[in-house]
Amino acid sequence: MVGPGEEFQLFDQCRICIVCSKDLGPDTAYQLAGTLQEHGGETTIYEAPSSFPELSEFTHLVSATIDFPAFEAAKDALIPVAKPQWVHACLQKRKLANPRQFSPDPRLFLNDVVVTCGDIPEGDKDAIIGGVVAKGGLYSPKVTQLVTHLVDLTADSDKAKMAQARKLNVKIVLPHWFDDCLKLGRRIDERPYTLPNPEILRAGPDAPIRSTENRDIVGASTADPTKLPTPRPRLDVFEGKQIMLSTDLGIGSHLLDSITEIIEDGGGTVTADVSKADILVCRFREGFAYRMASKLNKDVGNLSWLYHLITYNYWTSPLRRLLHYPVSRTAIPGFEGFRISLSNYVGEARAYLENLIAATGAECTKTLKQDNTHLVTAHGNSEKCTAAKEWGLHVVNHLWLEESYAKWKLQTVSDPRYTHFPRRTNLGEVVGQTRLDRSVLESLFFPSEEKPVPPKSPRVMQNKDQNAAAAKTASVPALDENVSDANITPAKKSRKSSDSKKLQTPARTRLTSEGKENDTPSSTSSRKSKEAATARLHEIAPDIALYEKEMKRVGGVIYGGRRKTDEDRVALNNQSKKRRSMDPQEESEEDETTEAKRQKKSKPPVAMHLLITGYQKWVGNLKREDADKRQLRDMGIQVVQDARKCTHLAAPSILRTPKFVNALAYSPIIVNIDYITACLKKNELLDPAEYLLQDTAAEKRFGFSLQVSQDNAKKNKNKLLQGYQIYCVESIRGGFEAFKSIVDTNGGSCILFRGRVSYQSQREDMDDASDSQAVYLLSSVAPDQQRVWPRFRQMVEAMGKTPKIVRVDWLLDMAMSQELRDADAYGLDEDMADRMEE
Questions:
Q1: φ, ψ (nearest 5 deg) of residue 524
Q2: Where's the BRCT domain (predicted)?
């Protein structure tokens, strides 16, 4: 209350934390803090990477962005977050303005808009005002300096002339702009709608639509980056943080050491204990570490997110960008079997959407054919759009894809938002603005309580832990939280004489409700936080105990831990029938005996998926092969037949077998076949690094390096032949299916050619402009194969492309070296065939 003789000040009842960011620097923050203090406010300035102060101390947060660690917790605690403009608006109005209209939340996508309306119908005016205010904007009845947009039908109206005469920075736009923004739920570029000569009224229906890059997906177009970024000279984003790098990242020791060095140089530490970590970096949304870190409200992101922090030295939430968060091993329910093609998206936006389609569990196709199910397009003007409509495919914008992924639920394609395409807008400009919803992630991937799961969500059942889950933790502080003066940058003292109004750090000189100063961390607020943290520790004690037991197991916590159904799962708090009279020591001994028996009977976890080719000891001896495979499995080696699933490849030398060539595209660890013999002889899992395949003679003969090939494969990501259209004669030596598997594995298209001129229409085999203009035929000079060459040339030339007839060595050399080769060096023609016969 204001005492006698004291003047009431605007921010008297406000305790405000100012969050520094790249858009709100420390200098501006200090100025803002001084202004607030002059009008009665209490302020604290937060600068990363310090620990965020207790949210309960504040009534408001002032930030230019929602990318700070405490945003989600502030939202849960109903503490408003407002941009700095809120302070100036309060002073201008001489009363506290509604902070929602100044929210930095991008979901309120019109929060920078102050609109006034010109000569437009009253109904349109009411609709626009309502929509703008609902999405965070403001309405002004008059043309003022604060107005950003004037909605009008002509640039000759009174308000438009007034804005032009006063040289105000006002955009005069057609009502269509607001209509399209509200239909999409995104803010799009105003330029096509800007008077006096709006593009949407003058451009023809077939005029090309500009494509623009946007910064929302820079560094976030893939969940599986291949190149470690170069950090800035002064990296402090990890200052004081403990980071856990999960085993499921699958990165090599050299890269792991490099990442660790960068983190430690930036003031952070790498830990293997998830309970001590502030940040968990993992690949998949599963496993003990993922669930525990998520329940404790720690930052959980993937390698792409970590690289983004290293590149920009600026903290951003892993929930902000869809592919900065760990992915799921299984598809979104309903997405299995979808074949989705893209149109009119370019550059990083296209790469982002291709990777997002893969993350949903659907298939992204380079070409559009009648067996596609969906076309995702940035606008409606393209041959693909025309063809898709003729074939009855679903034609949608990227919002359908993004929101299905964010909600982990198939969204209906009949929603008008997903089928709306503004006339002169390329929706690539708003790609990447959809965020993940933590409540959706919690309900599906780390539920707070063990409860029945609907049949349509098998993922939750797969990821359930057998131990009792803990309660929600949105407002629970970190277990080792201890806020001190060193964690927060204090603002300078005000000239004002009153000590109670000076800029303060969160731990000291904070006035309580009783008027006491100098409260220590043992005050009521901190004591409650510690009690909550202690209670939280008791709740998750079984999980921690399980984690410690799992860490002692050979192989560690593989892929984040075991599931309830795993044979070698270590069970805690076993409630099997025991005598109640048994003393604790007897119980412990019985538990250890039971556990030892269980581990003895069960198989060890799979440590290696091994593809084998050229193992002569198994040729013609199925009985021995089966026995050896069982013995290998008991060691932790799973023998696989599919190159896509292998982590290791065993061969006696460099071979040109389909298994060997296909496996190279997945860059497995390649060992000599002797490794299998040695493991079987010693009956133990040996170190594959001691048996790496060395075959310099074959490398020289085939003209490539095995190590370079593996490095290239990691970069290619099975896209070496993407865009290549390769035909194969029917009588090819080795069989069509073998060559088709090689082409498919490397991202190309392989089609059997029987010499018929009838071929798929150009629309069915529609390729993007980036695809090769050449079409290839794998053949030899055998007379029966030569006979189809003229027909092949006729077919390809009719498609407007260049025919090239090549030896199979062209394909094999590319697949084995993982490098593109000039087809002309492998070319075949009738003259060459005649010379070879001579």
A1: -60, -45
A2: 6-104, 104-195, 233-310, 335-418, 629-693, 716-828
